[in-house]
Amino acid sequence: MFIIIAGAGTVGYRIVAKLVQNKHDVVVIDKDRDVCENLYSETGATTINGDATKLRVLKDAGASKADSFVCLMRNDADNIACALLAKSLGVEDIISRVRRPQYKKAYQIAGINGIVDISRLLVNRIIEEVEKPEVKRIFTMGDGKTGVYAILMKKNSQAIGMTIRDIVKKNKFPDDCLFMGVYKNNMEDFFIPRGNFVIQENDTVFVVSNSQYIKQASDFLTKTVKQKKALNNPSPNLN
């Protein structure tokens, strides 16, 4: 893909480095000449020392041919102005970082189809690290209505010892939740679970779910039971 990134701060640098590593064709626009030179020497990305709110600069960068345009400048007004210019040049996929939530509506009017509030993501991540909840939202889709969630199977969780097939058949487990992966912390390995996959203690289960059903799903999976009956294991004969 041909991707243009306006703004090469800390976030921009990391994104550029990852995109280049993934073999994308990346052009970076930034006002700071030193930033451009350092970014080129460290990542190999093409850099343009200029103002991304100027139409001429965007044309020089080849914006009319871009598959995606990412706005990561230091203030919302510049990001919105840049997005409007990119839109006028025919760019359809425009992604931007929003710094202040009150500007979100303006970003939408500007035609930005991917709006990312990094500060909110950071705050949520820090809160999760502090509180260590059983359920963590990894990322969202569909304007926040659907997400991928990680659920830790602690000791005595109800789902331990059950297969995926057993779980989805239960009435209390929502139909709109889909198991997409299981990370076995003791093995440090990730698995794509099939119907006969057995959930074990200390597994981290990843599910895709509508936000309105995730609590029901997590409550079912993590409900603590005092004593679990062994599955398919008859009681020993003591006579």
Compact overview of the structure:
The chain has helices at 10-21, 33-43, 55-61, 76-88, 104-109, 118-131, 164-169, 214-222, and strands at 2-6, 25-30, 46-49, 68-71, 94-97, 114-116, 135-141, 146-152, 177-184, 189-191, 203-210. By secondary structure, the chain is α/β, with parallel strands linked by helices. The strands form 2 sheets. The protein has a 6-stranded parallel sheet, sandwiched between helices. A 5-stranded antiparallel sheet has the order 7-8-11-9-10, covered by helices on one side.
Helix content: 25-40%
Q: Strands of the largest sheet, in order across it? A: 3-2-1-4-5-6
How many β-strand runs? Answer: 11
**Global geometry:** elongated
**String of helices and strands:** EHEHEHEHEHEHEEHEEEH
Oligomeric assembly: single chain
Strand content: 15-25%
Distance between the termini: 72 Å
> In DSSP terms, counting alpha (H) and pi (I) runs of 4 or more, how many helices?
8
Radius of gyration in whole Å, from Cα? 24 Å
Q: Which segments are poorly predicted (pLDDT under 50) over 5 or more consecutive residues?
A: 227-239
Q: How would a crystallographer describe the biggest sheet?
A: 6 strands, parallel
* pLDDT averaged residue by residue: 85
How would the blueprint of this fold be written?
Layout: E1 2-6, H1 10-21, E2 25-30, H2 33-43, E3 46-49, H3 55-61, E4 68-71, H4 76-88, E5 94-97, H5 104-109, E6 114-116, H6 118-131, E7 135-141, E8 146-152, H7 164-169, E9 177-184, E10 189-191, E11 203-210, H8 214-222
Parallel strand pairs: 1-2, 1-4, 2-3, 4-5, 5-6
Antiparallel strand pairs: 7-8, 8-11, 9-10, 9-11
